[in-house]
Specification:
Structural class: alpha+beta
CATH topology: Thiol Ester Dehydrase, Chain A
Shape: elongated
CATH superfamily: Hotdog Thioesterase
Number of domains: 1
CATH class: Alpha Beta
Largest sheet: 5 strands, antiparallel
Helix content: 10-25%
Radius of gyration: 16 Å
Number of strands: 5
CATH architecture: Roll
Number of helices: 4
Distance between the termini: 10 Å
Strand content: 35-45%
Strand order of the largest sheet: 1-3-4-5-2
């Protein structure tokens, strides 16, 4: 890895989620809450639609930097605030975009700030990943 400057974009991508993505994640994670796959239940509890799992959104966000890091084991800390839901339309799905930017560099490693958006709205706030410097 070359010298890093604060503000440098190190990775970015857009992930398309579908209702099938949500059902698969529900099965894998064990989170079978029907707000993640049933419109009627989501509406009944006052949600704007079927929502992507927060942990799915969080996971796909941090996965964005793994190929840049070369080793996911370099991640030492990761935290976010869930600020807005990702509503996944039955037909159109939902696109989640992630931009990873160097937030700080010190002797112990790097802080990577993730900007995670859906439909022009930030869905994860204060999304920061602390990584060990490369050996």
């Amino acid at each position: 890895m070359t010298a890093l400057e604060v503000g440098a974009v190190v990775a970015e991508r857009t992930v398309h989620l579908t209702r099938e993505s949500l059902v698969r994640y529900a099965g894998a994670s064990g989170d079978l809450n029907p707000i993640h796959y049933r419109d009627d239940v989501a509406a009944r509890v006052g949600l704007p639609g079927v929502l992507a799992h927060g942990m799915l959104t969080m996971g796909l966000a941090v996965e964005t930097i793994v190929s840049w890091l070369g080793d996911a084991g370099r991640i030492v800390e990761y935290g976010v605030r869930f600020t807005r839901p990702v509503v996944v339309d039955a037909e159109a799905g939902a696109d989640v975009s992630v931009v990873a930017t160097v937030g700080a560099v010190d002797d112990d490693g790097i802080r990577v700030d993730l900007t995670v958006r859906h439909a022009d709205t930030t869905v994860l706030g204060k999304a920061q990943v602390r990584v060990r410097a490369a050996a």
